[in-house]
């Protein structure tokens, strides 16, 4: 087959919420509208080159080995084995960096999906996961799969192991909605991981893994009350919340407006709140936004059902 028949391919990967309260580094889900586009094309010469980054220009490295998308594609090509022409990547970021919404994961996933299609799809979707996980090394220093798997597969995911990645796809209750509020500050994943405590009291650990099990049960049984009672973080949220202005007040406002549960999205500063209908999701967002207005902090608000599609080939105008 003449690979150059496919000159250019564009893929989109969605933003994600990792941890989901109780599931630090093991739970995640995808949302709609926010995410990254990556276009891959063949060029003369050899190797992988990042030609352009838009949306966060100047904030991300163009060096292939230092960029999440570049690292992921290098990993894919190493496994592919066959010699191919040079590959050029263009990254169009439609989400903020350091937001806690899986920005690095979206780039990694969109890149491997685009290049895999450019090569004629030698790998299945599940086989792409380890390549995308390698890209997370550039962002956090560790290869973790929660954001990556959620962006790739869509819906809710549970990570049994990260390296090698062993991921279980979980069901998504039909009525579940998500409110995302992103205060316009940036928190780097490496920074937010550094402040975490290395030891956890046994009683808190017991509560935490009970919540994880209960949340998974709630997803399987469409038990929205159980989902809400399980989105509770005993370990990570108390430490990271101090980095987010107005966190306590925003969480209280969300719960007061009927949120099933509310916590930090990934490493923050974004917060997510789950609800069972769109109207509640919007009212929750307005209430949380009022808290940030009162302390003089600008923010972005997103309302979304859970994205069960995951990454896919997509035109830039069609998210």
Q: Mind sketching the topology for me?
A:
Elements: E1 8-18, E2 27-43, E3 48-54, H1 68-80, E4 86-94, H2 103-118, H3 125-140, H4 146-153, E5 156-162, E6 165-170, E7 177-183, H5 189-194, H6 202-221, H7 224-230, H8 237-240, H9 247-256, E8 261-264, E9 271-275, H10 278-294, E10 299-305, E11 312-313
Parallel strand pairs: 3-4
Antiparallel strand pairs: 1-2, 1-11, 2-4, 2-5, 5-6, 7-9, 7-10, 8-9
Helix pairs in contact: 1-2, 1-3, 2-3, 2-4, 3-4, 6-7, 9-10
Overall structural domain count: 2
Intertermini distance:
31 Å
Average residue pLDDT: 91
How many alpha or pi helices? 10
Summarize the amount of helix as a percent range: 25-40%
- Backbone CA Rg: 19 Å
Architecture overview:
With 319 residues, the chain is of the alpha+beta class. The protein folds into two domains: 3-170, 2-Layer Sandwich (Ribosomal Protein S5, domain 2); 177-305, GHMP kinase, C-terminal domain (Alpha-Beta Plaits). Helix content is 37%, strand content 26%. The protein has ten helices and eleven strands. The strands form two sheets. Strands 1, 2, 3, 4, 5, 6 and 11 form a seven-stranded mixed beta sheet that branches. A four-stranded antiparallel beta sheet has the order 8-9-7-10, with helices on both faces. α3 (125-140) runs antiparallel to α4 (146-153) and α9 (247-256) packs antiparallel against α10 (278-294). The longest helix is centred in the middle third of the chain and has 20 residues, at 202-221. The protein is globular, with a radius of gyration of 19 Å. The model has no long low-confidence stretch (mean pLDDT 91).
